[in-house]
Amino acid sequence: MLTYSFADIGSDALYHHLYQCIRDDILCGKLPAEFKLPSKRSFAKNLGVSNITVENAYAQLQAEGYIYSVAKKGYYVTEISCFAQPAGSRTENLPGQEMALKKYIADFVSNRISPQQFPFSVWSKLLRETLLNLHEELLETPPWGGVLQLRRAISQHLKEFRNMDVSAEQIIIGAGTEYLYGLLIQLLGRDKIYAVEDPGYHKISSIYEANGVQCCFIPVNKRGIDLKRLQASSCHVVHISPSHHFPTGIVTPISKRYELLGWAVGQEGRYIIEDDYDSEFRLAGKPIPTLQSIDRSERVIYMNTFTKTLASTIRISYMVLPQPLLEEFEKRLSFYSCTVSNFEQYVLAQFIEEGYFEKHINRMRTHYRRVRDEVVQAVRKSALATCCEITEEDAGLHFLLRIDTKLPDEELLQRADKAGIRLSALTEYYGNPTNDAPAHTFVVNYSGLSEAEIPNVVKLLTECILGQG
Amino acid sequence: MLTYSFADIGSDALYHHLYQCIRDDILCGKLPAEFKLPSKRSFAKNLGVSNITVENAYAQLQAEGYIYSVAKKGYYVTEISCFAQPAGSRTENLPGQEMALKKYIADFVSNRISPQQFPFSVWSKLLRETLLNLHEELLETPPWGGVLQLRRAISQHLKEFRNMDVSAEQIIIGAGTEYLYGLLIQLLGRDKIYAVEDPGYHKISSIYEANGVQCCFIPVNKRGIDLKRLQASSCHVVHISPSHHFPTGIVTPISKRYELLGWAVGQEGRYIIEDDYDSEFRLAGKPIPTLQSIDRSERVIYMNTFTKTLASTIRISYMVLPQPLLEEFEKRLSFYSCTVSNFEQYVLAQFIEEGYFEKHINRMRTHYRRVRDEVVQAVRKSALATCCEITEEDAGLHFLLRIDTKLPDEELLQRADKAGIRLSALTEYYGNPTNDAPAHTFVVNYSGLSEAEIPNVVKLLTECILGQG
C-alpha cells in the first residue's frame, strides 16, 4: 500500500500534507492514470492518521480534479494529458529588463514637478479629512463618468477659468488622456480617419496606431493645423491643441478656430478633439476662448488633464462630450467602470472647490515664469547668445531653441545625452517625412528645473553645443 | 470714433475691459471684417486711458486672432467665417442624465465592501507615511509596468499565496482589469478571435465588442469551458476564470487545465487569459494551482485585481505576461503611461509588504464565510426552504439559488426590484441564446450584506418569490 511519512511536516495540516504527497506523485507520474487509491479507512489505519485526514485529502484532490470517485468502488487517479516538467525558477532566466530609468542632470523632455512645488501638506490634509469623513462615499461605485462631486467642481472651474458652459454630466473622468483617447476611438468609430498635427505629441499617433485606426499627419503652419490640407484629406476627426500647440507653441487664432468649426459642420460625423492640455500655464495675456465654448454644432470634444497642472504621477484627466455623443457613450460604453480611484477623485474635488487648485496654478505659473526667465537670460548671457534664437517662450513650460550650427541634430543630441542632458529635437516630433522639419531646433521643457541648477545646466548645454568641455 | 465706457468695471484691468468690449463687438458683427481700428494714440486719448492700455488690449486681440496689423497702416478686424450665435446656457437644456444610482435595500449584484470592513485606519496611516516620506518617489514617472516596489510586493505575494514564480518585471499594473483587457487586445491583435465563457461575466464580451474584435461564446460544462467546442472553433485566445467561474462557481479541475494548456500549444499564436479575480475568497479547501504556474509553454496571461479584495473603488489590477509577450509589449506599447496614481501604488505596496493585505484577506474571508452561513441558514429556515436549492456556495462571494417556481424569471426579478432587492438571473449571463440557460436560477452575491440585515433581507426575498406581502 501507498505510504507517506508524516515526520517533519511542521505546522502543515495533516490532511494538507497527505494531499500534497499524493498530488506530487500524480504529477510526477508515480501514480499513473486510473490507479486505484486505497480505501479511506485502510489508508488511514496504515498511515496512523484519522479517517477524517484521509477524507479531507481525497476531497481536496477530487475538488482539484487530480482524482475522481466511482460510486461504491473508490477513488482513481485522473488521466492528465501532459505531465508537468520539473519546475525550475523561471525568473532567473529573464533577460534583465531596464527597470530603472536613466538619471539625467537635466531633463528637458519630460513634464515634471519638483517635490518643492507639489502641495503635499494641503493634499495630505484633504486626504486625511476624506478618509475620516467619507467612508460610505469612498466605497460607493461612482457613476460611469466619475464621482459627481469632482465633475461639478471641474464644471465650475471651467466656467470660471475658461468661460465654458458645461454641465457636470458632460464630463467624463479617466486615468489619463491616453486612456480617454482609447475610449474616443471606441466611441467615434474604428472606421474613421483621425488627423493629427505634424509636428505633434508623439503619443497621440502611437495610440491611434496601437488601436489599429488610420491616422493622418496634417502639417501645422503659423495659424495652427493647415486647413487646406485637412480639407483635402478624407479625415473625419481632427485632433488639435489650439491653445498651445506642442511642440511649436503656436496658438490658433480665433478666425482659424471658426474655420475649423466650419470644417466640422461641413460633413456628417466630423469631430474636433480639442486638447487643452496646458492652457493654464500660458505665461502672458489672457487665455484664448476654447473651441468648445464657441462651438454651436456639438462637434467639439474638449479634453484636459491634471497630470500637467498637478503631477504627472496622479493620473486624472477628463473630457467634455457634446450631448449627442454623451448619449451614444451612455448607450454603448457606460459599462466601463471609471478608471480613477474614488479616493483621489474626492480629494481632487475638494482641492478644486476649496480654492487650492487656483492658488496652486497661480503659484506654478509664477514659478514657471521665473524659471523660464532665468533659463532664457542664462542662454542670452552665454556664449550661445550669438548663435541661437529662442521662440514661443510665452506658451507654457517649454520654448524652442534654434541653433546656428553645421552639426547634425543627431550629433548634438548625443553630446547632450553624454553630458547628462535629456533634450529632444523638433524633427523628432514630425510623423510625415515629407513635411519639412526645421533642423537645429530643440524643444526645451524647463518644467523640471529648479532655479538653483539653471546656471550649471545652461553652462553644460553651451559646452555641448559649442563642443567645448 | 469707437467709444466704450469704463464705468463699473470693478477690479477688471482696464486693458482687459477694453479687449472684451472690442471682442464682443467683433463677435456680434458690430465691427465687421476689415474694419480699421483707431490708432492706439488717438483711441487712448478719446477713451481717457493710457496708450499702454490700448496697446495691451490690441495685443491680446491680435494674439487671439480677432484683429491683425498691417505694417505702417494699423489694425484691422479679422474675417471670421461663421459668427457665433448669442450664447445661451446650454446646460439647462440637457436631458437629465440619471446621475444617482438607485438605492437598494439589498444589492445581490454588485461586489461591494461595507465601510466597517475596509481597513481605513491602516490605509490612512500608510498614506500619511507615504506622503511624508516619499516626496521624490511620488512625483517620479514610474516604469511603464508600474511602480517597481508594488510589482515586487505582488511578485512575493504570488509566490507565497499562489505558488507562482514570476518576476516583478513580468507584472503590469493597470487601472482595472477592463483597462488591461484593452491593452491585451492591442498586444495580441485585433485580427484574433477571442473565446469567452458562456455564461460569463458580461463586461468581458462587451469590451471585445466595443473594441471591434470578434468574440465567440463557448459553453461551460461541469469541468469549466467546453474544450471540444473550443477546439472546433477558430478561436485564438480563450478568456477563462478556472479558479472560480462566474457566475456558476465551477472550478476547473487540474486535468482540464492541462488539456487547456495542450490546446494552447496546439497552434502558433494561441493564448489563455487566466482571470483569477477572486481566488483569495475560496471559502473551503486550499486554492488550486493556477494555469500560469503549470504552464511551460509561455501561453498563459495571468490577471488579478485588488478591486475585489480591497475595494472596487480603488482601481488597481495587474497582469503577468510571459516573457515573449512582455518583450512584444515593451516594443509596441510601452509608450503608454501607467494608469494608476503613484500615490496609491506606493500605499498598496506597503500594505502588502507589511502583511496588512494578508490579514485583510483572512479577515474578509472569515467575514464572508459568516455572512454566507447566515444567508444560507436564513434561506433554509425560511418558507423558501422547500422550494429552492443552493449550489456552489464554497466559491467566493456568491452562490446560485435555484427556485422551484412556475413564474418566469422576469417576473421574479421585477418583484425583487420593487421590493428594493437587486438580483440577477443566471440567464442574464448567457451571451449565446442557443446555449441552454437554466431558468429560475439566481446569482446571489452577498458581499455587500451586513450580518444584521440578513434576516430582514431574506424575509423580503422570500415574500417576493412566494408572492406574499
Walk me through the structure:
The structure is a homodimer of 469-residue chains. Chain A has 469 residues and is α/β, with parallel strands linked by helices. The first copy, chain A, has three domains: 14-77, Winged helix-like DNA-binding domain superfamily/Winged helix DNA-binding domain (Arc Repressor Mutant, subunit A, Orthogonal Bundle); 106-115 and 359-466, Aspartate Aminotransferase, domain 1 (Alpha-Beta Complex); 134-354, Type I PLP-dependent aspartate aminotransferase-like (Major domain) (Aspartate Aminotransferase, domain 2), CATH 3.40.640. In chain A, 40% of the residues lie in helices and 14% in strands. Chain A is built from 17 helices and 16 strands. Chain A has helices spanning 14-27, 40-47, 51-63, 120-133, 135-139, 148-162, 177-188, 202-210, 227-232, 254-265, 291-294, 306-309, 323-333, 342-353, 356-381, 409-418, 454-466, and strands spanning 67-70, 74-77, 106-107, 171-174, 193-198, 214-221, 224-225, 237-240, 271-275, 300-305, 317-320, 388-391, 398-403, 421-422, 424-425, 441-445. In chain A, the strands form four sheets. An eight-stranded mixed sheet of chain A has the order 4-11-10-9-8-5-6-7, sandwiched between helices. In chain A, strands 12-13-16-15 form a four-stranded antiparallel sheet, covered by helices on one side. Chain A has a two-stranded antiparallel ribbon with strand order 1-2. In chain A, strand 6 (214-221) and strand 7 form a beta hairpin. The radius of gyration of chain A is 31 Å and the shape is elongated. In chain A, 45% of the residues are buried. The model of chain A is unreliable at 82-100 (pLDDT under 50). At the A-B interface, helix 3, helix 4, helix 5, helix 7 and helix 8 of A face helix 3, helix 4, helix 5, helix 7 and helix 8 of B.
